[in-house]
Amino acid sequence: MHSIFDQGPPPPCPKPFNMAAHVLGQAELVPDKIALSILGDEDWSYGALKAAVLGTATGLLRAGAKPGDRILMRLGNTVDFPLAYLGALAAGMVPVPTASALTEREVAPMIATLNPALILRDPNVACPDDPRILELPTLRRMRQLPPAQWHMGDPDREGYIIYTSGTSGKPRAVVHAHRAIWARKMMHKDWYGLAPTDRMLHAGAFNWTYTLGTGLMDPWTVGATALIPTAGTTAQELPALIARHGATIFAAAPGVYRQLLNQTDIPEMPNLRHGLSAGEKLPPAVSILWEEVTGTSVFEAYGMSECSTFISAGPDHPVAPTVLGRPQQGRRIALLDANGPVKMGEEGTIAVHRSDPGLMLGYLGAPDETAAKMLGDWFLTGDQGRMDSDFQITYLGRNDDMMNAGGFRVSPVEVESCLARFDGITSVGAAEVAVKQDVYVIAAFYTAAAPLDEAALRRYAEANLARYKKPRLFIHLPQLPMGANGKILRRALRQQYEASR
């Protein structure tokens, strides 16, 4: 028996279709229900949310953008982020959300590649000067404008673009269709157990795509209530917020669970049914401790920028903490080697069938790179796994040197290319290393005539790399381990560091 999960396709996406209209489809039925509560700050009803989104759509059209135009988002951790995102989609434009931690140096090539019609900018977020910038006060005034009509069309047309680190070191623009939101219906049952009565508290910031999808759009799609903590809320404060606001589902990255559990006297959370985790592998010890402390399970999901979560555990099919999960109903998933699907129980590369509605349209302007990720009809994730007879998949790690920093995939080449310009460095290699059990950081190993000023290295990295890409360790070596082809052996760097501790 081969490692293939295929139990039939999901229902086809309706035509014509608009992603934002689908997300806010419940607004007509429950206009007065609270759709979003920014805890301790403000509440948004479904009716107010829809009006603000469609007003924003009108404003973007009046600003000169047209359906199909790209809209670059340089916005902070505020409600402006989801309103602008859905407003652009509502008008048929293509929003491009980006991490607010990116520096001007990192944003400039994105602008050159995208050629956006507008750049939505919070003055507190780094962005090169550009005549296409639309400042935050102007964006906020758009909410009061008359509502635009939903721009309906082919569900396979461009919907949005997100950036992910590439193995070459150059961030890749991943193009998704409007139909991508339709694919998330498979998560509602097989990961969340999501219902209209739920109150979903997501610990992430508004301007993180994990929050945008799991914490906002999915609850809104079913008519549930999204709860978002105010900026600056610590992990230690979250249990009290969960209890006070009656959260039934809690979502966070593994690092938040670790920080939350690193305290005594965690208050009871009587309404909480379970937690959700994604972004990186949840350490089994953290999952076990969460269940001991809270009496609830935490369900993990696996996905990537090119295809949102498609393997998960859930209330209807819990798995052991060491297991990643099971393919969601409606997915076609296989574990492959160069010859095709491997036998059940053997290691293979996790792959998604090209028919999945959540799979990207491709990398922007890079058809060859897109084709290189395909093996026949299968998209190769680059992650290794093993499938058992119950279709449960155990994660076995990456088959390349990509790093994971707080849920963001980071290319070592991107970090190395930046640091190589620092005066005095003669060669540099970046790798993800374990500093203690289940805690990993990015380390930069470099050669130079003598150890360099670490404070100066940190300042340089802070000025030129997003915070999540910034190395936490700078280690001087007499030489870097190199292969016969002259390439840095990053795994050897990691192994040498961890063996020396």
Please outline the helices and strands:
Elements: E1 4-6, H1 19-23, E2 34-38, E3 42-45, H2 46-62, E4 70-74, H3 80-90, E5 94-97, H4 104-114, E6 118-121, E7 133-135, H5 136-141, E8 158-164, E9 172-177, H6 180-183, H7 185-192, E10 199-202, H8 209-222, E11 225-228, H9 238-244, E12 249-252, H10 254-261, E13 274-277, H11 284-294, E14 297-304, E15 307-312, E16 326-327, E17 332-337, E18 340-341, E19 347-353, E20 362-363, H12 367-372, E21 374-375, E22 378-387, E23 393-398, E24 403-405, E25 408-410, H13 412-419, E26 427-436, E27 439-447, H14 454-464, E28 473-476, H15 490-499
Parallel strand pairs: 2-11, 4-5, 4-6, 6-7, 10-11, 10-12, 12-13, 13-14, 27-28
Antiparallel strand pairs: 1-17, 2-3, 8-9, 9-20, 14-15, 15-16, 17-18, 17-19, 19-22, 21-22, 22-23, 24-25, 26-27
Helix pairs in contact: 2-3, 10-11
Distance between the termini: 43 Å
Strand content: 25-35%
Runs in which pLDDT lies below 50 for 5 or more consecutive residues are none
> Helix content range of the residues, please?
25-40%
Work out the count of structural domains: 2
CATH topology of the largest domain: the name is: Rossmann fold
- As laid out across the biggest beta sheet, the strand order is 3-2-11-10-12-13-14-15-16
Q: Rough shape?
A: globular
Counted beta strands: 28
Report the major sheet: 9 strands, mixed
Q: Can you give the mean pLDDT?
A: 93
SS-derived structural category: alpha/beta
What is the CATH C-level name of the largest domain?
Alpha Beta
CATH superfamily of the largest domain, please? ANL, N-terminal domain
Q: What would you say the CATH architecture of the largest domain is?
A: 3-Layer(aba) Sandwich
